[in-house]
Amino acid sequence: MPTIAEDLRQIHAAAVRATVDLVAHATPDDLTRPTPCARWDLAALLGHMTAQHHGFAAAAHGRGADLTVWTPTRPDADFLHRYAEATTAVLDAFAPADVLDRPFDLPELSTDRTFPGHLALRFHLVDYVVHGWDVATTLSLPYAPGPDTLAATLPIARAVPDGPTRLTPDAAFAPAHPVLPGTDPLTEILLLLGRHPSRPGASA
User: Which residues are in the Mycothiol-dependent maleylpyruvate isomerase metal-binding domain (predicted)?
Assistant: First the structure.
């Protein structure tokens, strides 16, 4: 019988692959479009997403402390191929049976400790559910992750610390917005992580 972590790995893979389908709708002319991420156009967002895939893949192989593997580059017209390659790399890196117990160096989160693979998987999942929305919103595409994906991601989003660290220029997420009772799971995830679905241009 699969464990919860193994089930989450399947959900993670589906969520990450869904971002490839979204990116496939973009053209080179779209790369200068503004995104819900403050100060980033689509090229900067895709550069970040591609680099994060490579960084997490490197971390799974014990090389996450090398800051160069996390450094984004601005994509060119070949952005879809490069993004799809990075997606394959990170999903392959999370595939081995023992990866969920491996120590991951994630220098953007801490330089003083490592994180177990099952936590790294959760960090990556929530990031790409949110970045999937960022890409879809930028391109005016529908975005509807499945209920299993949202059920797995919402507790992670609720556990992400809020506070002054979200105000720094390199913060992964902007400060959380209030969540009203009865808010649907996707909207709650986005609000908790600093997006504002009703005003996507005001998100960060």
Answer: 13-136
The Cα diameter of the chain in Å comes to 47
Question: What pLDDT digit, counting tens, does each position of 86-117 carry?
Answer: 999 999 999 999 999 999 999 999 899 999 99
Residue with tokens 């060119």: 76
Tally of CA atoms within 13 A in the half-sphere of 132 that contains its CB: 28
CA–CA distances in Å: residue 196 to residues 37, 43, 178: 11, 21, 10
Any idea which residue has 């995830």 for tokens? 189
- Given the structure tokens 């193994």, which residue do they identify? 6
Domains and CATH numbers, the chain: 4-146 (1.20.120.450)
Please name the residue ranges forming H helices in 99-167. Answer: 117-138, 147-159
Per the structure block, which two tokens stand in for 154? Answer: 């919402």
